[in-house]
Amino acid sequence: MEKVLGMGGFFFRARDPAALKTWYEEHLGVTAGAETYDELGWRQSGGITVFEPFSSGTSYFGAEDRQWMINFRVADLDAMVSQLRNAFIEVEVDPEVYPNGHFARLKDPEGNPIQLWQPVEKWLAAEEDK
Amino acid sequence: MTTPPDRKSQRLLQRSSLRRRDSLKLGVGAALTVGLTGYSQMRASALDTDEADMEADMDAGMEASMEKVTGIGGFFFRAENPDELSNWYKTNLGIDLAPQKSGGLPWRQETGYTVFDPFEMSNEMIPEGKSWMINFRVSDLSKMVEQLRRNGNEVSDVEDYPHGRFAELTDPEGNGIQLWQPAG
Fold first, then answer.
1. Residue B23: its pLDDT value, please?
2. How far is A64 from chain B (nearest CA, A)?
3. A47-55 and B71-79 as β-strands: parallel, antiparallel, unpaired?
4. Closest Cα of chain B to A98: distance in Å?
5. Residue B50 class from Cβ within 10 Å (0-12 exposed, 13-18 middle, 19+ buried)?
6. Distance between CA A28 and CA A64 in Å, rounded?
């Protein structure tokens, strides 16, 4: 069976695309699309991605009018949260440490929900061994 | 076969939505093209000179120490029939179900480029009534398209661009999907 290799792009509607692009680049390091052959866009590291449709009435996204939510993996959640807070971005850290790691939540300037996830190495290793 | 430039220009003039789509596709890696020039200009015009200088200074100073997300660890979206849709993605595109549903491993992405791109509200590439769209990288687009059609899905013709081959479809709930076989 043919399987897709990964997400080569994510596109979403925005009121101010240019400003939002800059925001993702400056605060999360997600660089915008490439402009030359030498300067390709954001390069994702390989890894686990939970791809999941939710029921239409879910409250998980934090706002009823949002159709999607993205989760970004981070290497150091504390450092990322500090960086965001230093830039006066509100971040809600989930105090609970789950078997698969710990999480935080924020919104981009247009209200799109973002989840940050620092996976637990042991959990990842165990999953891969299954 | 690559789309001849004259034909492409004509189409660019005819349909603004297509122009946006071409500039996006070209944004993935191609230079020296009509769409790409538009794309760069769009980006450049978004910043006035002072802001651009400031951004360059910040880039130089922050590059080393800045925290960056390493990848997409999850993508969640509303669906009328979440279970059916999960199965559709599993059966047609090989995306493993969420562990809560399958009890198994989640989907594993390979390392690669991801164009993360906010669009204008009026963009016509994203299906009407939808606010997002995903592009998936594939290793063999012809085989993937064949598999999808065999399963009864309608898929667009494959189009060739300098940096790869593309095809489009929608999932059973009308969410837009683009498939991309990177060049080289």
1. 44
2. 10
3. parallel
4. 14
5. exposed
6. 24
